[in-house]
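INTERNAL AUDIT FORM
Audit reference: QA-55
Scope: verify that the stored structure record matches its stored sequence.
Auditor: D.O.
Record contents follow.
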Amino acid sequence: MKPQIKAIYLSVKNMKRAVEFYEEIFDIKVSLFDKRMSSFNFENISLLLFDPEIDGEKCLIGNNIVPNIEVDDINKMFQFIKTKKCEVVMPLKKINEYLIFQAKDTENNIIEFYQVKN
């Protein structure tokens, strides 16, 4: 079997706040909530939220990976992110066939949203 990415995790400081944020982003309920690690399970991959302090680990919080999230309506998501008072770190712009922007989530991780435009 070829190697495959099945999960990506983000380090968080406040699990409840992070879960609530991503429930709104994905418009689904968290698949598993735990104070140490919570998960959002999708068809081929899981997004895990991990609190390293539970295990006594030291971990850089924020910008440790950049999840790339496809959306149907980039303008609607951009407005939603602004209502959450998330810092936009790359403004909405067109790059080739993509409309794209990046913002920080509630835990200071950079997340990227894109929509394919033909």
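Auditor finding: record pair retrieved intact. The chain has two helices and seven strands.
Action required: none
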